[in-house]
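## retry 2 of 3
previous attempt timed out at serialization; input unchanged, resubmitting
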Amino acid sequence: MIPRLPGEGPRDLSKPLEEIQVQVPQESDGARLDQTLQQFLHWRSRNSIHRLIKGGYVTLAERSSRPSRRVHAGEVITVRIPHRPRAEDVAPGDFDLPVLFEDQFMIAIDKPAGLAVHPAGKRVNDTLIHHLHKRYRRPDDPAHDVVPRLMHRLDRETSGVVAIGLDEQFHSEVTKQFEDREVRKTYLAVVHGCPAQPSGMIDFGIGPDKRSAIRLKLAAHRDGAGRPALTHYSVVERNERYSLVELLPKTGRTHQLRVHMSAIGCPLVGDKIYGLDENIFLEQLEGELSEESRERLVLPRHALHAHRLRIFHPRQGEELEFVAELPADMRQLID
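## retry succeeded, writing output
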């Protein structure tokens, strides 16, 4: 997660990330500036942080500093995000993401795997929000300036339907549908093996995996522990190695579909955390994956696809369903 100042509200995910501000904690009083920043910008190497500081992107009390500068508890460090010419710097008319639906109130996109929906961690450029800003924002022309707002999120590795509001009131109304679980989401996943039953309901609570070395990893609990979670699954196709399953989450827990499928012995293909070996995820954190690990993963991303999304369109007064077809990398595993 991107750090925030104490008391700072949620970030406006309609905007590309331009700067980060962090407050020096008591335990870092007297530490070097570069060492302190590494605690917060843990996805950057020390050399990368040195380049930021020496390039003038890091300031203390609105003044540039040296990497060896000693910081004091309570000081605020500001880090400006350097934006290099990349995919986000295309001309406003260039937009090559598949559009499933578009009107004056919203747009639905078939997001490819590997594209983050908004800036987070080390991914501060080339996100879905960057592309949408290039399509809609006209700050110099207020009458035609449109602020795209995400109505929900998908993981970077998950492909499929993402809905974005183009009108503030519309966004608020449809976001409430997501919060009230009135939106119907259908996912497709390719998993190892095949569930014992062709369809069923997985009713395992989800909570922290205290046995794992991965802090963010969650586990399924059959003893009633954890937060309640329900997933309906049905097998669509299968071959000797894999199954294509349709997943309907009845709750919205973090990593729910991946945790539940792993819990019944059918982890998602390509899943580095809940797949065949969590050490692959730890290896990725250290740097490049080995060729052996890549072969074991089969896919470079977890095989999860947001296939269908059904919402009620408040302005049209009817339900709309957006469908993103199964991507080729998942289809080839079944074919």
